[in-house]
Amino acid sequence: MRNTKSIIKIGLLTTLLYSACSMPYLERKAQNKTVPSSYSTTQDSINSARIKWNKYFNDPYLAVLIDSALIRNQELNIILQEINISRNEIRARKGAYLPTVNVGVGGSVEKSGRYTSKGANDANVDILPGKKMPDPLSDLSVGLKATWEVDIWKKLRNSKNAAIHKFLASVDGKNFMVTHLIAEISNTYYELMALDNQLDILKSNIEIQQNALEIVKLQKTAGKVTELAVSRFEAEVLKNQSRQYYIMQQITEAENRLNYLVGRYPQPIARNSKQFIDLSTDSIHYGVPSDLLENRPDIRQAEQMILAAKLDLKAAKAEFYPSLKINSGLGLQGFNPKYLVQSPESMIYSLAGELVAPLVNRNAIKANYLNANAKQIQAIYNFERTVLGAYVEVANQLSNIGNLKSSYDLKAKQIDALTRSIDISLILFKSARADYMEVLLTQRDALESKFELIEIKKQQMNARVNVYKALGGGWQ
Predict the structure, then answer these.
(1) Is the dihedral of CA 36, 39, 44, 50 positive or negative?
(2) 416-to-410, 411, 437, 450 alpha-carbon distances in Å
(3) Terminal Cα distance for the chain, rounded
(4) What digits encode the pLDDT tens for the residues 235-270?
């Protein structure tokens, strides 16, 4: 017995040494979590990402759209099912390192040849005095069978923990989708409000141009201008009337895009576009770059995938070591149903253990091990890329907000000047002190400037949305 134990120990030790010596060399990559201390020379201790979306976006019409989308959006619901799949994977991995117990009932009939060793033996054996062994011989059994792979090297446990981190990564993936969904709905909503304002400006401008056209017609009747002036004013009116339908089509598409994101068929979108130009773009707090590691769901997801990849590598490494499997059984067996209940004569049991280690042709195990290491390095690079991208995204949006504010202020002053020049040009035209082309160009410049102001305002609102998304807001 002592010799047997010694042989087992020596064999196990030899296998472990062989496994350790034959493992392939792995490339290493350290995870870098270092980020700059700030986005600019100024510091901000508050972070808008921690504000709930229904506080950050205080428009009641927009809040209704976002709230409906978080329930009905099909893409988000698809991702929720991915989370369920990941949760079920944890359950499957958890069951792998627990014993498997099966219950079974079996039956068979066997007829041995008379001149076989078994047949000759059965022919001369009595069950009871005067009762020969049945021929053919039935075999009935009922019992429990258990198998268990003992998780010596934590291979199965590491696989289960890797599945847990993948599940957490899928949750963060859902949160990242929520952030993007809120941002996309908000940006489209502000685009819709901007189009409404552009349409109102265009209609007002058409009214002004129609009044100017009537003045030109009177001037032609008085012989002060030619038919050319009338035709040019009339063409400008028709151009802008045609432009209305292009904007109306854009409004329809923006409404339908919002309805699609909400998960419903096209219907009118409630909004108050009159307030668009007065919407605030201030009160944005960006915190410090290290906040991104906690607030950005895509960064959190990337970090969870690193943890999962490390555990997958440990599980792959354990494949080189011996695995211990235990098989056992307990039940009743007899050739006649009435003998099944006669214990202990009909009772059967078994217990066997098997220690197996890969020895020859381990290419598949080595390949899986190398692949697991490559995936771990890949996950680390993906994490660093995600952090870098998040930082650049925030920095761009913060710069964009400042530049758009300066641009908006200057454009507003330009519009004030052009609006005054429209009235002046008409007065000068009536007194024959200005050419009709000056009136046309002044009106055209004023219209385009007003359109540009609305466009800048929309970009300001989009920048406010995008910096909230870049900081990782919306999913909390």
Answers:
(1) negative
(2) 10, 9, 20, 10
(3) 63
(4) 988 998 999 999 999 999 999 999 999 999 999 999
